[in-house]
Amino acid sequence: MGVVPSHQHPPLFPDDEDADTASGPPDLRERVVLLNREISQQAEANARRVAALESTVQTQSQEVSELRKAYADMYSLLSQMRSGGSTSAPLPDFPPPPPPPPPPQTDAPGTGSPDADDDPDYV
Question: I need a labelling partner for 45 at 20 to 30 A (CA). Which of 51, 68, 94, 118 fits?
């Protein structure tokens, strides 16, 4: 085998002027650029999905609050009717309105968000 002259193999630590050739062949660099672009596009799409889901949750939360209030009003009206006198038909028993939900908790950044360790369906 013998000793190979240094001009026949690349140095282990290229100089600054050799940095362009040391970063990989052009097709590999192009692939990295394409993959980075794909990651950015996926991140933007995920951000749009999260925003849409947050909007849906907010809308549904408002609807649930309105339904709880309507139920409480109906329960109150039913209670008033029961105490106000007898009616020709007995009034059905309704359970009392449920207590309001606890306020939403906000997690510190980076916590509470699902990741592959927390959620087996995480993609």
Answer: 118
